[in-house]
Amino acid sequence: MLEHVELFFKSIFIDNMVFAVFLGMCSYLAVSKKVSTAVGLGAAVIFVLAVTVPLNWLLDQYLLQDGALAWLGPEYADYNLSFLSFILFIATIATMVQLVEIVVEKFSPSLYNSLGIFLPLIAVNCAILGGSLFMQAREIPTLGLAFNYGVSSGIGWFLAILAIAAIREKIRYSNVPAPLRGLGITFIITGLMGIGFQSFGGMLTGDNEPPEETPPTTAEKIEVEEIKKEIEDEKAVSYNEVKNK
After folding, report:
1. pLDDT of residue 49
2. 122, 157, 158, 129: which is closest to 39 by C-alpha?
3. Which of 25, 105, 164, 195 gives 20 to 30 Å between its CA and that of 16?
4. In this model, does residue 65 exceed pLDDT 60?
5. What is the rounded CA–CA span in Å between residue 164 and residue 33?
6. How many helices (H) and strands (E) does the chain have?
7. How many CB atoms lie within 10 A of CB 48?
């Protein structure tokens, strides 16, 4: 249970897709002018990551890894299909994005129109593919942790685009210097937010402190004194032998 909690908070705050590795910046900058649009796209990203990361974990474990095909028989144990990772991961992501696009167009045409081309472009959003590739690179051991990582990574991206959208709506009425208006001030704010999120890095390091040393017992102190005395006696004997010679 602890590893689930640690992975959840670490993926949201410390290894945030936007502020830590700068993935998904195209959609982050283009669809963050309004909070309502940012919420819709962020929810879609959470759903896609929550579905595709566990699915790609299954593909990686039972199809792509070296020896993953052993369940088909011993003659397939030496096969390594890892070179197909990108193709299969993107195919899974494109399928889920198509499903999201159909659902959004059916139930929220206004959101579908406001998202425009960026909704189908989730299929090539580097944050979506990055979630699956990071899952593979970090060798996440279980399907539950893979689902946890997908959801938490999506929430981290959602919080990032929601925060910048809220700030951009406010600074629209601020006296921003002309050269910094638009993307200029957005990049500056993103950098400051990234620094703020990195401050969470010490949140999960409390258990890394070395344990306090226990004071020695009386018996241990006596033993140490005896050893010191024996060493001093040996030094005195050696000194007398050298002096007599």
Report:
1. 93
2. 158
3. 105
4. yes
5. 8
6. 9, 0
7. 25
